[in-house]
Design a protein that fits this description.
Catalyzes the reversible adenylation of nicotinate mononucleotide (NaMN) to nicotinic acid adenine dinucleotide (NaAD). This protein has 196 residues and is α/β, with parallel strands linked by helices. 33% of the residues lie in helices and 16% in strands.
Length: 196
């Protein structure tokens, strides 16, 4: 895991990054600025239990691509999940908390993932354990109104104007951040519809 100090605010941004692209950079820049983060970790996952990962490029390649696209010194590319043999986000977050006492973490996810968030293993535990920032994505702007997570935890939604407070608040708490959106997606790149 990247080095952090107690009292720091750190965003956790997980994904397969297959491949990383400008949309990931836009989410990173928006989250870092609006949440006033000291660091943001790109957690390159070994795989996704909800997706077919048979054709996933090697982890080492995806780490190298992620490092090559990043010039922001606050971004730390890591793949610690593979070395700790964790499979689910809930396990990852428990591991992060155990090794980094006193650090204020925020889970960062794209709004496109919010629709299926209730299918994640122990999704309610994730919401109860970490503040969450949901970043707007094309075609998913209204997900904060319709998703099961958003409806279940509607009472815990923080106005995005107060987003800088998110890492200081006790969960459950989440916010939805609007901002510039990129139409680029890893799927579209793999399908030849966009360039990285």
């Amino acid at each position: 895991m990247p080095h952090v100090e107690p009292g720091m605010s750190v965003g956790l941004f997980g994904g397969s990054f297959n491949p990383p692209h400008d949309g990931h950079l836009l989410v990173t820049e928006l989250a870092t600025r609006r949440l006033q983060l000291n660091q943001i970790w790109w957690m390159v996952t070994p795989g996704n239990p909800l997706k077919d990962t048979a054709a996933l490029p090697p982890l080492a390649d995806r780490i190298a691509w992620s490092e090559a696209i990043n010039s922001n010194p606050r971004v730390k590319v890591t793949a610690f999940e593979a070395s700790h043999d964790v499979r689910f986000t809930s396990e990852t977050l428990a591991l992060v908390r155990r090794y980094n006492p006193g650090v204020r973490f925020v889970w960062i996810m794209g709004a496109d993932n919010l629709a299926d968030f209730h299918r994640w293993q122990n999704w309610r535990d994730i919401v109860q354990a970490f503040p969450i920032a949901v970043i707007d994505r094309p075609g998913a702007t209204l997900s904060y109104l319709s998703s099961k997570m958003a409806k279940t935890f509607d009472y815990a939604r923080l106005d995005e104007g107060d987003a800088a407070l998110l890492s200081f608040l006790e969960p459950p708490v989440w916010t939805f951040l609007h901002g510039p959106r990129s139409p680029v997606s890893s799927t579209a790149i793999r399908d030849g519809l966009h360039k990285p």
